[in-house]
Amino acid sequence: MFNYSTSEENYIKAVFHLQQSDGMVTTNELASELKTKPASVTDMMKKLKNKKLLHYQPYQGFRLSHEGNKVALGIIRRHRLWEYFLAEKLKFSWDEVHAVAEHLEHVSSKKLIDKLDEFLGFPRVDPHGDPIPDVNGKIETSKQVCITALPLNKQAVVCHVGDQSSEILELLKHKNIGIGTKLEVKKKFDFDNSMEIKIKQQFYNISEQLAKNIFVKYES
Amino acid sequence: MFNYSTSEENYIKAVFHLQQSDGMVTTNELASELKTKPASVTDMMKKLKNKKLLHYQPYQGFRLSHEGNKVALGIIRRHRLWEYFLAEKLKFSWDEVHAVAEHLEHVSSKKLIDKLDEFLGFPRVDPHGDPIPDVNGKIETSKQVCITALPLNKQAVVCHVGDQSSEILELLKHKNIGIGTKLEVKKKFDFDNSMEIKIKQQFYNISEQLAKNIFVKYES
DNA sequence: AAATAAATTTAGACAAATCTAAAACACAAC
DNA sequence: GTTGTGTTTTAGATTTGTCTAAATTTATTT
């Protein structure tokens, strides 16, 4: 409907992501997510409140309004479609798509995005397994499970990776783990919460930090 | 090498285009091209001079330095590759590509552009017939002729359109004129410099303004 | 060569987005 | 219920890009 600056869009997107887990988002959380200062966050939150994109009472944290959520889903749609395009058509590797998509997502032409969607064949998930909102902002919520909660010896398929930093993606590439990879948890160690998983007859050791970022669906 | 703001890039691009015809570009020319005020132009010219992208002595007009030209060609490469992508892959019509490419051109990832170029099959000209600079900024200069200078009854092929406004492109679409269209000038009228051209057994009347914007190559 | 007109530059102001440092607030601990 | 700590907000400054209005320079005309 309206157009927002690159900066506004980045704040909106960050609030959207943080409120998934936290419900209410705080100033410090947002500042560290966006690598900016708390004072800057407050300034922007006032602005977005004026534009009715979020609910915010001083000192009480914030969450997106209905309108704010719609805007966020639009940005996420653009981001994930570009990621898909970069990986699928331009053959970017898994860990490179995110950074470039961060820029492309701010080019906001509805027609561009809808035609891109069509050109790509209406993909449902991006290269990290995250669902892509459709034209109306509807997003698929699949019941995925973190491998820390997976029972032993149960076959499952990687469908999502939590973190998007190039560090984690580099590590996963090294261990041959990607979206669609079939795996089984063979052992869990209580000492450090690390685990051993099996992929194609090969065994790998996974740290707790890494495990927390790998999500799977059961084989269907 | 370095990164420039969207605003800086727009000024650089505009100077590049204006100096093709004029040699030396003036403050007012640039201001009207960019729909801004002369004072803003002066401010930006000082900045670009400091960055050694252009030659400029107060009151003497300006032209791009060697470095400035290289930067300009990079921007033009991005713009025209995106235009080609939009028209060829996303099926945008001729008159829609320019506006969207204006935004995409500012996403400056060398890898993105080089991979896009490869994906598109290294096209040589954009949908308006303008040549696309290669990775090294080299640009094809073809000896094209404006139809105002075309002898009567000589077969020629449209290869370029001067103006890029959606108005002119809409008009051309209506008359079935596009890149690759074969035409012949049948008559010129001295009164208003309008002319009659023939396309596929059909005759069309072309105003002086329009004729000045249509460029052709002779049939080969 | 002086006067006038046009183009260009300067000076000062403003909006957006950011920052630092100081003040205000919330809340847990005593 | 006062105190203290950490969080959040305010106040004021900065940078980028823009503008208006005034001053300056260049060009034109007589």
Summary tags:
homodimer, alpha+beta, SH3 type barrels, six-stranded antiparallel sheet, 8 strands, 41% helix, DNA-binding
What would you note in describing this structure?
2 copies of one chain form a homodimer. With 220 residues, chain A is an alpha+beta fold. Among the domains of chain A are: 6-64, Winged helix-like DNA-binding domain superfamily/Winged helix DNA-binding domain (Arc Repressor Mutant, subunit A); 145-218, SH3 type barrels (Roll). Chain A has 8 helices and 8 strands; from the N terminus they run αααββαααββαβββαβ. The first copy, chain A, has a 6-stranded antiparallel sheet. Chain A starts with 5 loop residues before the first helix and ends with a strand. The relative contact order of chain A is 0.10. At the A-B interface, helix 5 and helix 6 of A face helix 5 and helix 6 of B. The structure holds a DNA duplex (30 and 30 nucleotides).
In brief, what are we looking at here?
By secondary structure, the first copy, chain A, is α+β, with helices and mostly antiparallel strands. The first copy, chain A, contains eight helices and eight strands. Among the domains of chain A are: 6-64, Arc Repressor Mutant, subunit A (Orthogonal Bundle), CATH 1.10.10.10; 145-218, Roll (SH3 type barrels).
